[in-house]
Amino acid sequence: MSLLVVIAGLLLAGALGLLYFPWSGKGAVDRDALNRTLYQSRLQELVQERGEDNPALVVELQRTLLTDIPPQAQPGERPLRRWALLPGALLLVVLSLGLYLKTSDIGQVLLWQQAERHFPALLQQVKDPTAAPLRMDELAELRLGLRSHLQDTPNDLAGWQLLGRLGLLLNDGETAIGAFGRAHALSGDDPAAAFDYASALVRAGDSGQVRMGELLLRDLHQRQPNSLPVLEMLALSAVRNEDYPEAVAALQALLARLPKGDARRAAIVRQLAQAQQQAQ
């Protein structure tokens, strides 16, 4: 970033130099004086060549070189003052800065640097159960700072899991799927990490990702047949795939394993009725 700013500054300085120095007025040539000099030089050459004055040649030489010279010396044109170029230079600077701010990611860079500074405090706050919950903008800033942290510590399993949860909270499905996928790869055969990844695929993925999540959930169901979260996610996956008979089976299995007084039973009964209606 600093190198880019330096290069942009050098280019701007060069452009200002091209605007400024050609009008400095140094080295300007007086055309009348040049014609007089040429006339005298040519006249001396004629005298040396012929040894005497030739009126006809002298008249022709005068007509060629001296006719447009005024009889009295006129004051030379005043060179353009340098301060007169100041508005143009200022306009060039303003346009350059405007174009730079428009086309660069300086705003994103500043946000990223701010997130890096605030990351330790935000992380400590989110880990403290007695602290006030973070606002949505603070969660977004924590997500950005955590991304930067994970670039330096790519094997931080807890960091990837936290990033995945932040992605779900902020409706950032792509981040959630990527983070939980990385955590699943780091955790080996951990069922909890596999469930998090499968849940993200089912909740936020496209049709192909939903199918991948369903395969993971089926594998988890074989290993943990009484897991209520797995059954619930299998039902959601079946609904998203419009496989309503499978959704009915998963919801019935889930309902059979819930305690009688569980508050979730009413919602599952409604979902089961809707799935049965769609399956007909």
UniProtKB/TrEMBL annotation:
All residue ranges annotated as the Cytochrome c-type biogenesis protein H TPR domain in the record: 108-264
Superkingdom, taxonomy of origin: Bacteria
NCBIfam families: cytochro_ccmI
Biological classification of the source: Bacteria, Pseudomonadati, Pseudomonadota, Gammaproteobacteria, Enterobacterales
Gene Ontology CC annotations of this record: cell envelope
Residues that span the membrane, as ranges: 83-101
PANTHER family: CYTOCHROME C-TYPE BIOGENESIS PROTEIN CCMH
Chief location of this protein within or outside the cell: other
Gene Ontology biological process terms from the UniProt entry: cytochrome complex assembly
Subcellular location as annotated: Cell envelope
Cross-referenced Pfam families: TPR_CcmH_CycH
Gene3D superfamilies in alphabetical order: Tetratricopeptide repeat domain (1.25.40.10)
SUPFAM superfamilies in the cross-refs: TPR-like (SSF48452)
Alphabetical UniProt keywords: Cytochrome c-type biogenesis, Membrane, Repeat, TPR repeat, Transmembrane, Transmembrane helix
Species in which this protein is naturally found: Klebsiella pneumoniae
The protein's name: C-type cytochrome biogenesis protein CcmI
